[in-house]
Design goal:
Chain lengths: ~180, ~180
């Protein structure tokens, strides 16, 4: 069984076809967490570093002084440190996997969206922009996203991690039900 | 070499570990709008499978590392109002975006243009958050600060009991999910 298999389907003794890929990937992320804790003393996480990048992006807009004096960016300044370089790695990891699998393609309107809302690129991109904005704002308020709070917090049995997961699934389910309700 | 590493070695590992993370997210098909949105529609359980397996395998291993003195906890503050509110806001954004921040970055690498546009939205969200931070700190984050609390402290159950319960729930869920796919 290989993580590189395009499809991990295998027929079990019960005749149920089980795609083992998501479980193997979960094991992979779990083992990666062991390494992150033991080797670099830094759990997996994305949005703390992303807020540092936001500080870097805000510098030409708001001015270097305003960013330097901001109470939040003061403790999360933009530098090429462990967190921001991790983001660079994540980008190229996704790219390498897609190229190796032959699945790299430019996608503007994904199939599930198209089926419900049609093929308008403007509509999809506007909602993606808004969704990204809302997700990032919420992640920072919660002090972590699906990675930092959900996986890293969840695996440490942190109250913040499990509170985050419960709240995220609750509003996510309601949002999806409203978006995809039968007209 | 003594662990944990720091300095340049840690920066090299940051790229390597990030690369592995992005690779895994893409291979797990979670760097995909369709997979993530369909999880919230109960049409695809890939996200649940990946996350629960990662939490169980990661959690039991990290617990062993900590017990063996080879790792330290990194518990975030349970500022309960802020975490619950932030998680709730995040869930709405995640479904509209079709990605969470990590899967979005991996998806950008795999060619998703809407993930890249949403990335610009995330940067703006980060800027708006930093600008509103002083107010949030005084009025939201300061409410119900429970500190770096873990579930064993909250529930009175041991780590192993909690992981046992979690494993049992996960396995029952996985069996139910796979059985429902009998027709595949």
């Amino acid at each position: 069984m290989s993580l590189t298999a395009a499809s991990g389907d295998a027929r079990s003794v019960t005749g149920i076809r089980i795609d083992w890929t998501p479980y193997l990937v979960g094991v992979g992320i779990g083992v990666l967490s062991w390494l992150a804790f033991a080797v670099v003393n830094a759990p997996l996480g994305i949005t703390t570093a992303l807020s540092q990048v936001a500080g870097g992006a805000a510098t030409p807009i708001l001015g270097a002084d305003a960013v330097a004096q901001n109470a939040y960016w003061k403790s999360n300044p933009f530098t090429l440190d462990y967190g921001t370089l991790f983001l660079v790695g994540t980008f190229f990891g996704g790219m390498a996997s897609a190229l190796a699998a032959g699945s790299f393609r430019f996608e503007v309107v994904p199939p599930v969206w198209r089926e419900r809302f049609g093929g308008s690129p403007a509509r999809r991109l506007a909602v993606a922009f808004l969704g990204g904005l809302i997700a990032m704002y919420g992640a920072r308020l919660a002090n972590g996203c699906t990675s930092g709070n959900g996986i890293s917090g969840g695996l440490q049995l942190a109250v913040s991690g499990w509170t985050f997961l419960a709240a995220m699934f609750a509003t996510g389910l309601v949002t999806a039900a409203l978006l995809f309700r039968k007209a | 070499m003594s662990l944990p590493v720091s300095g340049t070695a840690a920066l090299v590992l940051a790229v390597l570990f990030g690369f592995a993370f992005g690779w895994l997210l893409h291979r797990g098909r979670v760097a995909s709008f369709d997979t993530i949105v369909n999880q919230f529609r109960f049409k695809d359980f890939t996200v649940l499978k990946v996350m629960l397996t990662a939490i169980l395998v990661g959690g039991i291993g990290v617990l062993a590392l900590i017990d063996g003195g080879m790792a330290k906890y990194h518990i975030k503050d349970a500022n309960i109002l802020a975490v619950a509110l932030g998680g709730g806001i995040f869930g709405i954004g995640m479904v509209l975006y079709g990605y969470c921040p990590g899967t979005a970055i991996a998806a950008m690498g795999s060619g998703s243009i809407h993930a890249a546009v949403g990335f610009v939205g995330m940067i703006l969200g980060g800027i708006l958050y930093a600008l509103s931070y002083p107010w949030l700190r005084d009025n939201v984050i300061s409410v119900a600060k429970w500190g770096k609390m873990r579930l064993p402290e909250l529930t009175g159950l041991s780590d192993l009991t909690l992981f046992g319960i979690l494993a049992a729930v996960a396995i029952l869920a996985f069996v139910a999910i796979e059985r429902s796919r009998r027709t595949a």
